[in-house]
């Protein structure tokens, strides 16, 4: 036995079970043409903890491998790769993101935490908007622009810094190196097309229809991804117009902030609703069951944030603007502050895993 093996810490229960199942999969290789997990698995015969974390974050839980496998229960091997990789994936986020206890708390009490935070922060915004009302300030009559910047800038940047520290450790443990343009192109291309939600064959995955393929989950994810990016573009364009063009809000319908914001809000709302519908249909035994409530709560918070923004636009010029603005900003701030501890963090880790996989596979 080598010194490295003597010094290696024993794998935890989830890691050990993932190691067992992946060794069986690696011997069988029936699912060779499936998602990115399988090429990564087939490069080696045994797996360290970093390898297991890497493959778990490559897994998109499409479940095609489970429904194709001959070794699932009641077979004595009892393979359930989607579930065990989901558990390892969740444990990886909880171990890399600090403080660790907040991720576990959210996934156990997500609904209560998200709703309480959104309402509490919304009430604070309501009080601030009432106390500082200035009818001559246009859109910012309800809440001063400088106050919004002072609140939201650190609330957005601080969680990103926490995620960046976690990604640094993940990158080191999984053998990542400085990415090339080709690595980034491969990873971002995969994300843009949701390639791994097609099960590797383009027909879709089996998330909600067992042995029948469907692209419904792939399209829902694309709606959420592009909706979120469009909303971000809306905020970014409004910031540029405010500071560099001396053009403060409100903006007309045919301006970039409104065009990006409305289209993004619609996509994000519809995508979140569809993801909730699919999750309610999916077999919970093929996921990390302990975090089901937290994942559901995060998707609901995402959809509620987008929906409240759309309602705010519809209510323009009415008395409903002030309470809707307070609630919307409460949802947005809650989403930002909880970003490292909700499933939103999976986007950062999955993109990192795809970049690292592009490096290890030579871009294939």
Automatic annotation (TrEMBL):
Keyword field: Membrane, Transmembrane, Transmembrane helix
SUPFAM superfamilies found in the cross-reference section: 4Fe-4S ferredoxins, Respiratory nitrate reductase 1 gamma chain
InterPro entries in UniProt: Citrate_utilization_prot_B (IPR012830), NarG-like_sf (IPR036197)
TM stretches of this protein: 110-127, 147-167, 223-245, 257-276, 296-315, 321-341
Protein name as it appears in the record: Tricarballylate utilization protein B
Annotated source species: Nitratireductor indicus C115
């Amino acid at each position: 036995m080598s010194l490295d093996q003597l010094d290696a810490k024993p794998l935890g229960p989830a890691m050990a079970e993932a190691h067992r199942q992946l060794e069986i999969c690696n011997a069988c290789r029936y699912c060779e043409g499936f998602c990115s997990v399988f090429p990564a698995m087939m490069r080696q015969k045994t797996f360290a903890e970093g390898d297991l974390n890497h493959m778990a974050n490559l897994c998109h839980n499409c479940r095609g491998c489970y429904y194709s496998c001959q070794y699932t229960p009641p077979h004595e091997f009892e393979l359930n790769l989607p579930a065990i990789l989901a558990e390892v994936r969740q444990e990886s986020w909880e171990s890399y993101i600090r403080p660790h206890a907040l991720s576990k708390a959210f996934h156990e009490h997500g609904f209560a935490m998200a709703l309480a935070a959104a309402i509490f922060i919304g009430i604070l915004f309501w009080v601030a908007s009432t106390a500082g009302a200035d009818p001559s300030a246009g859109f910012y009559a309800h809440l001063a622009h400088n106050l919004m910047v002072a609140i939201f800038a650190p609330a957005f940047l601080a969680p990103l810094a926490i995620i960046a520290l976690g990604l640094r450790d993940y990158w080191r443990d999984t053998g990542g190196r400085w990415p090339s343009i080709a690595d980034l192109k491969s990873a971002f291309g995969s994300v843009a097309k949701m390639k791994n939600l097609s099960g590797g064959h383009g027909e879709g995955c089996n998330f909600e229809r067992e042995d029948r393929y469907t692209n419904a989950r792939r399209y829902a994810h694309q709606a959420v991804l592009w909706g979120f990016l469009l909303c971000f573009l809306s905020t970014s364009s409004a910031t540029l117009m405010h500071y560099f063009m001396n053009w403060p809000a409100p903006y007309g319908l045919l301006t970039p902030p409104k065009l990006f914001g409305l289209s993004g809000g619609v996509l994000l709302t519809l995508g979140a609703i569809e993801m909730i519908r699919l999750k309610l249909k999916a077999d919970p035994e093929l996921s990390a069951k302990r975090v089901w409530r937290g994942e559901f709560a995060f998707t609901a918070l995402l959809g509620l944030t987008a929906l409240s923004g759309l309602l705010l636009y519809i209510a323009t010029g009415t008395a409903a603007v002030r309470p809707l603005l307070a609630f919307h900003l409460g949802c947005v701030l809650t989403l930002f502050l909880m970003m490292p501890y909700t499933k939103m963090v999976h986007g950062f880790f999955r993109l990192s895993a795809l970049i690292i996989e592009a490096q290890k596979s030579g871009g294939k």
